[in-house]
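Ticket closed. Logging final result for CDP-diacylglycerol--glycerol-3-phosphate 3-phosphatidyltransferase.
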Amino acid sequence: MNLPNKITLARILMIPIFIILVSVPFGWGSFDMGERELPVSHLLGAILFIIASTTDWVDGYIARKYNLVTNLGKFLDPLADKLLVSAALIVLVEAGIAPAWIVIIIISREFAVTGLRLVAAGEGSVLAASQMGKLKTWIQIVAVSLMLLHNFPFAFVGLPLGIIALYLAMIITAYSGYDYFKKNWHVMRDSK
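Final structure:
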């Protein structure tokens, strides 16, 4: 249990705090953004989400720089990302901010790739995240952040960048899932 893995676990532990912050009606008020409002709880949730998401870069940087890459880290890091983004997307659906069908596509891909990773682990190998998978994660993080912020600051100019980013995230997520299975199909084919 090295430092990068502890940071990854901290990211996982931030998820329930994030969910409570965004889901529980604390009645802290909201900020007026022209035709829209940004609840304080969503702003605080966005800040926590962004901090948690940033730990993904921090743990990876430390692991690579100090040669602390482990199989546990290769497994936990993408799992933490999936849990954080999935929780945020589900909260956005519950709040009526994100379309459920897009979230279902994104989360379905995450389950499918996690299943492939579990099959690989059963065969004694660990499938690290691909560059396409990392790009997918960062686009998801941008989309979720913008949507938690109710498209601030782009709401002032009428640019729906949050939903555009979410559509882009869905497309790249689906494609990266296809790419991941294409490159690692041998794991399923050769499994016992």
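The first strand starts at residue 30 and ends at 33. No further action required.
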